[in-house]
Amino acid sequence: MVSFFRLILVFLLIGCSNNILGQSENEMVLVTGGSFIPLYGADSATVVVRDFKMDVYPVTNSDYLTFVKKYPKWKKSKIIRLFSDESYLVKWEDDTTLGINFLPSSPITSVSWFAAKAYCECQGKRLPTVDEWEFAAMADENIPDARILPDYNQKILTWYEAPKTFKNTVGSTFKNYWGVYDLHGLVWEWTLDFNSVLMSGESRKDVDKDSNLFCGSAAVGASDLMNYAAFMRYAFRGSIKASYTGRNLGFRCVKDIEVSQ
Amino acid sequence: MNKAMKTLIKIIVIALILSSCKNNKNTDVTSNKSLSDVVSNEIPELSIYNLPSNWTTQDNKDIELKSLQGDILVMVMIYTTCKAACPRLVSDMRNIEAQIPNKNKEKVKLILVSIDPETDTPTRLKAFSKENNMESDQWLFLRGSTEMTREFAAVLAVNYKKISPMDFSHSNIISVFDTNGVMVHQQEGLGVDNKETVKTILELADKN
């Protein structure tokens, strides 16, 4: 009889142990670093990305609701205009009520870069850099770099054409090589250094190399003009400001790998 | 049987205590390191003084951005090893400075913020200020952490990217802030007509 109870104890402890070990609310997977040539870099130079952990899913409505309850300065009625435009959480009924028809496990949107950054920092994480995000996103289900596959770009562009995908729940698109979902086809995502993209977003001006608006911009050209999907993402990043919010713009977090001594 | 029951109860209690640690584990109560907890009522919502930023000057003094409150600020983001645009931005700043009448000079601070804090140490900034005849109290050079720099640039809508060990690609923007730290004007590009910029500064100077 006693050994039966011991068995129960063991099961109960195992059930809790995940929590004791500090698994974060949003599950993360390891993305093994490597090198690649991003669409926009420096003279098409190879970029090295170090190992990092990435959230499997974008941050959800319910994740964010928990966040604003704990950190009231990020509530809809409390946020200051420096950190967000007027459409912050525009569809939420009030400070702690999601919009009508908004699913708790849909990705959070209508949040600014400052808010996204704060959320990640409060989890002990950070926003991914553009290079990290693009590195993880070039994978399809089976291989880490699917950019060479002829139908890869077409698939992504088809997803981009689907309307109001932000209403879907996280996990509704495919799981990529790294075990990460929804890098394509759900929402656009904030990055830590989105303002390192020096495109005006207007293709006529970009061709002109904008030599007065940007110092050194002639060095930063597109390495693969056929990767139109990536071009759209970079153009989008180049067109937004940190306080901007958008109904189809969300985010996820990453974490550096601690190097154990 | 009694003893077994007692053991079982103990086990359940322990299990309940342990399961509640999930709620506590993820509450990272350490306050968000990049945002101020206290927003002064006197500072407008759009003021940069809402950022709790700590910077180091060319004289190796640590200052809070808030300490600049009360002055009209003319700000640009550059890096000292920049060969192409930055010298022109510097002369644009100087052109603006030259048009401020002496009676108003006290109220205006011209600030150069480095986008390359790793290279631009206070010593390097000091040397730069000497090379460019910007040693008077009118001029201030600031250098922050890499993260703070990125956030500050985001507020100013200044884009920048490191494109080689020595070079950055960056927007060429001069910004003017009123005495409360609210951005009131921006001048984009090099060698642009600074009439509007100077007009804005003089209007602010007359108001204060």
Layout of helices and strands:
The complex is a heterodimer of chains A (261) and B (208).
Chain A: H1 2-20, E1 28-31, E2 34-36, E3 47-49, E4 52-55, H2 61-70, H3 113-122, H4 130-137, H5 152-161, E5 188-189, H6 203-207, E6 214-215, H7 228-239, E7 249-250, E8 254-256
Parallel strand pairs in A: 5-7
Antiparallel strand pairs in A: 1-4, 2-3, 4-8
Chain B: H1 2-19, H2 21-25, E1 54-57, E2 62-64, E3 72-78, H3 85-98, H4 102-105, E4 108-114, H5 122-131, E5 139-143, H6 146-156, E6 160-162, E7 168-171, E8 173-177, E9 183-188, H7 195-207
Parallel strand pairs in B: 3-4, 4-5
Antiparallel strand pairs in B: 1-2, 1-5, 3-8, 6-7, 8-9
Q: How would you sum up this structure in a few lines?
A:
Chain A is α+β, with helices and mostly antiparallel strands. Chain A is built from 7 helices and 8 strands, in the order H-E-E-E-E-H-H-H-H-E-H-E-H-E-E. Chain A has helices at residues 2-20, 61-70, 113-122, 130-137, 152-161, 203-207, 228-239; strands at 28-31, 34-36, 47-49, 52-55, 188-189, 214-215, 249-250, 254-256.
CATH topology category name of chain B: Glutaredoxin
Assign the CATH class of chain B. Answer: Alpha Beta
For the secondary structure, the number of strands of chain B is: 9
Q: Uncertain runs of chain A with pLDDT below 50, 5 residues or more?
A: 13-25, 203-209
* Count of distinct structural domains of chain B: 1
Name given to the CATH homologous superfamily of chain B = Glutaredoxin
Averaged pLDDT of chain B, please? 86
> Which percent band covers the strand fraction of chain A?
5-15%
